[in-house]
Amino acid sequence: MQETTKDILKKYINFFKEREHVEIPNVSLVPKNDPTLLFVNSGMFPLVPYLMGEPHPEGDRLVNVQRCVRFEDIEEVGDNRHTTAFHMLGNWSLNDYFKEKQLEWVYTFLFDVLKIEPAKTYASVFSGNKDAPRDEDTLKILKKIFSDYGIDPVENERIFFREEDNWWQRGDTVGELGGPDSEIFYYIGDKEIPDKALDPSKDEDILLEIGNSVFMEYVKTENGWKRMGRKNVDFGGGLERMALVLQGKNDIFETDNFWPLIETLENISGLSYGESIESTRHMRIIADHVRSAVFLVMDGVEPSNKDQGYILRRLIRRIVRSGKSLGLDREISTELASLVVEMFKWLYPELEEKEGGIKEVFQKEEKRFRRSLKRASKEIEKYLDQLSQKASEEDLAKQAFTFYQSLGYPEEIFLEDLRERGVSFDTRKFYEIYQDLLEAHKERSRKSAAGRFKGGLADSEENTVKYHTATHILHEALRRVLGDDVEQKGSNITSERLRFDFSFHRPVTEEEIIQIEGIANSIIKSDVPVKSKIMGSKDAIAQGVNFLSNEKYGDKVKVYFVGESLEKSYSKEFCGGPHVDSTGELSSLNIYRQKKIGRGTIRIYAKFDL
Length: 610
What we know:
Helices cover about 40% and strands about 20% of the residues. With about 600 residues, the chain is an alpha+beta fold. It has 4 domains: about 5-250, BirA Bifunctional Protein, domain 2 (2-Layer Sandwich), CATH 3.30.930.10; about 260-375, no CATH class; about 385-450; about 460-610, Threonyl-tRNA Synthetase, Chain A, domain 2, CATH 3.30.980.10. Mean pLDDT is about 90; it is low at about 450-460.
């Protein structure tokens, strides 16, 4: 019987639980208190403080599945494997076990539990550089593992040495963590026995990366990478990719993670998946984007022109554009959103409860964009009316790109408009120029995203840590003035200011702001200690500790409280830290801006008076 994605996940979690790992929650896609990342983009992101040495409430061996979004290569979606949202299987050792146990366990899981074929499995190892030596330990362990399963572990035939591809780091700022890694590849080609000459660097179409063990023992300094005195393990395995392997596919959209969406698109469009390159590409785009968008709305993101909201808006609009390319002029996103809810409620039970709100967001955004396309068509008509029957491919491609960027008008629909008007042009040449323009734009977007969301460790800066503590104090002051119903909906902290979102039905008055500032600054001036305590989550809730209702927590949590004791504290919240040692280290807090950002949610900005 074919393994489902649910089966694979259950087996993975159980396998590592049997090896003394504690399952930790699958957290929101929107990073908490880290302005350097737009979305949680890897399973290790929530664990950064613990990888650096902060004790984890659940111990030194952890396991989970984490939803992730990577939007940088959104234009790549449409082939057989790229997706914007995915699920990462993860197991971690926080300075406990290291290379030998990790590699033995992960290959035991793959070969003995999932029963994937050793003869179709390949590995890569770090080749070394000026900061770190060639990873001979991993090579030795892998050779033994492959030999034990009857596979000749020939270097550069079964095990490959690579430098950049086998060094993992989250970012490039001082204080970042990194280390050598060992990737796992699986052959998804058509042959029963793969050719011996395959190479993961050259044969990416048929050698699919399904997992990566990172041996995180280095830290970035001003002078390069240095060993940090801790040996962490961070494994990341692509759940959707493992499903592809176990379900015998070479197209991720034919797995149970996407296929029901594809089948629905076939039914409503009258087209068959795979019958043409273009229609297949658009079905993949729609299936991927609607899934990603549902997860984002589930985590509280709403369409906007900035940050997470901009990506959500872009996803929904691309759904509409690809739908038009399939001949679908009616609303499709809400129907598909409901299907995603049905498909993934086993993993996210809260989806059923949130389905109505999710569909409302999709419906409003799709209607808004369809109105925009209708308005855009008037400009297109105006352009076409003055166009001669023969125009250069360069001019047409530039104009198509302009319409796409400024009005969201799909280039393929623009081409249909041109053909209907009898405009003569070379389609191949048009697309060459158009793709060059698109690639240049994508490169600018990547550089912009890399500059703004470069993945630095936000909490490592002294002033950011201070704002982190100030956020807890501000939260308590808000509750005291506006009532206990005030609940945190999100926050964003930089070294210059804090931003805090909370539930409230109206803007805060000037008089209330003065009261809130007064309470917060009174706590700051009291110079009381800031302490932490690891305790059971149910016990903490029973004692009135504040927590995010939209987050999931493990059996044990870390609680930070402002005061001499938890019982007599000014504020107490679930939090991983870090924080200052005393409120006396903070300056007076000034609320300088507020705005309404959605249904029943207020956003305020505050900074220290320096």
